[in-house]
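Task 17 of the worksheet. Students: predict the tertiary structure of the chain below and write it out as structure tokens. Keep your answer in the requested format; marks are given for formatting as well as content.
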Amino acid sequence: MATTYTPQPTGSGLKANVQRVGAHLAGMVMPNIGAFIAWGLITALFIDTGWLPNKELAELVDPMVKVLLPVLIGYTGGRMVHDQRGAVVGAVATMGVVVGSEVPMFLGAMIIGPLAAYLMKLFDDLIQDRVRPGFEMLVDNFSAGILGMLMAVAGMKAIGPVVRTFTDAAGNGVDWLIEHDIMPLASVLIEPAKVLFLNNAINHGVLSPLGVQQAAEAGKSIMFMLETNPGPGLGVLLAYLFFGPRRLRATAPAAIIIQFFGGIHEIYFPYILMKPRMILAAIAGGATGVAIFLATDAGLVAPPAPGSIFAYVAQTPKDGWFGVYAGVLASAAVSFAVGSALLGFGKLAEERTGGETDGDGAEAASDKTADDDRAARTG
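Model answer:
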């Protein structure tokens, strides 16, 4: 399921292992994006600072973000590991980290859902062909119930507190960045992690819970924009469109539509992995966007899921249009400028650099060799 949304990594190196973990984390979140959108729309419309404030309907916000969304993630993670039985125990176990928590337990659900399903799988493998005929349903139901109960207790007493401690530490780190006016430096960590397909884990596991807390107090939060800003990716793709190797320019327009309007950021990650120096463009664009968001006191009322410009429109507060879109456009412009420079404004696509031949250079050299051979034969 994870590979439906992210490329299947190959190899056994550190990068491949990190990508593999990121793909599984993305696979737990992406199938439930519709639920995130539903919650985001309810939040944007009906909270006190929303477009159509409604106190009664706003009561849906907290249960959905604190219970429904984590349970869906835990259910999906469990299903990825051990089909329906894994999904059931994953959902039950997730309730353990949800109950008593004051913050949305997305990260806790990503941990305990697959873990409970894996233990269920180990148990099923152990007793396979050992249960007497007629007792299969009894053993299946009671084993799932007992394991679900034990994992729910473990989640409530062990995993939940650990995740809360981690979230508090992350919040303190972000607060430190805010207090010292250096939050744009967060892009130095966020953008490279995104390219390793850890974007959903970063956003929904760390930044969104922090943003939910901040939005509950202030009505909006900059946390929702640190990872989801579509500007840096747009700038990178535009740089490829105008100055990238010719074989890639034709793919850039479709990628831009999918990334900027569809919100699927994964589409531009391979473009950076092909030329790792392009990560500097994404970092520069991301840092620029964050700086403008801070300077204009911009924020969104809920996570823009997925991170498309349309989702930004839906989650922008009534008085926050200038700061939000100034940041998005500026981050795209800076990312495009830096990316264009890193691509040599098209020159590096045709010339040998550092003893290597770029894709277009190889094609040009091959064409020249073929022409020389034909000239020799006719001569």
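Marker's comment: The CA atoms of residues 75 and 91 lie 5 Å apart. The first helix runs from residue 14 to 29.
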